[in-house]
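Protocol step 6 of 9: fold each sequence in the batch and record its C-alpha cells directly after the sequence line. For illustration, a two-sequence batch is reproduced in full.

Sequence one:
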Amino acid sequence: MALSFIFPRAFTTSATVTADGAYAYFDGAMLQYDVEHTPDKYVAKLIFKAGNKHTGNGRTSSATPPYHYHPYQNEHFEVVSE
C-alpha cells in the first residue's frame, strides 16, 4: 500500500555519474557511492558538500531523503564526519 499521500512532495533532481562511479546530485553537492547491493541489503556511502545550499542547511536542505515509511523493513544510518 502506498502511503505517499501522508508525506509532502519532495524536491527531486536527476543524477549524473562521475568518473569514479559515484552518482552526483545537485551539481555534485551530494555524491552517492554504492558499497553493497544484495537482495537482503543495500549499503551506500553519501558525501555531502559543506556550505552548499542543497546540503548544508540541515532539515531545510534540498538534499534530504524524502519522508517515507517502511512497514516491513528496518532502515539504519551511521553518520561519520570527516
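Sequence two, same batch, same settings:
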Amino acid sequence: MSFFRALRFGRTPGLATTLAFVVLTLNGCAGMFGSEPVRVNVAGIDPIDSQGLEVRFNVKLRVQNPNESAINFDGVSLDLELNGKPFASGVSNQSGVVPRYGEIIVNVPLTVPAFAAVRQAFAFAGVTQSGQIPYILRGKLAGGFSGGVTSGLVGGNRFIDQGTLSLPALGMALP
C-alpha cells in the first residue's frame, strides 16, 4: 500500500503523526533561515611578530548581530584577497557570544606569505594610475547552530565584506 493511500484510509495513524511532526518541525526551523547575516568590518590592524619572510597582523573585527537571537561561536576563519588574488589568511580559536542586536570585537591573526607579498608588490605597480585596490574579506564564525541564527545547517555564520582600498597619493612637488 502506498504512503498516500495509507494516509487516505487512516490505516497508519503513526505514519500520519510522524508526517505532521516533520512538517511542523521544518516549519519551526524556517524562521532560522530568514535571519539577517552578521555584519563584519575591520576595526583595526596591528603588526605582530613574524617568522622568516612572512608578515603577520592582528586584525580586529567588529562583528554586529542584527537578529533577535544571540550568536554563539567557537572559532573564526578569515581570508583576504587583494586585486582578485589571495593575500592573507588566518584562524583564531576565540569563542564568545554576539548578543542579540549587539556587537563584539574579535581578534584574528593574519599571515601574509612572502610570495603573496611579492606578487602584490608587482600588482601594485599597475594600480598606481587609479590608486584603487579591490579587496574581498571572507570569513566564518564557527559553531553550526548558533543560538537559533545560522546561515546553514553546519559550518557557522559566513560573512563577506568587499570594497576598494585607496593608496595614498604619491605626488611629487617640483620646485
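Proceed to step 7 once all outputs are recorded. Observation for sequence two: The first helix runs from residue 3 to 9.
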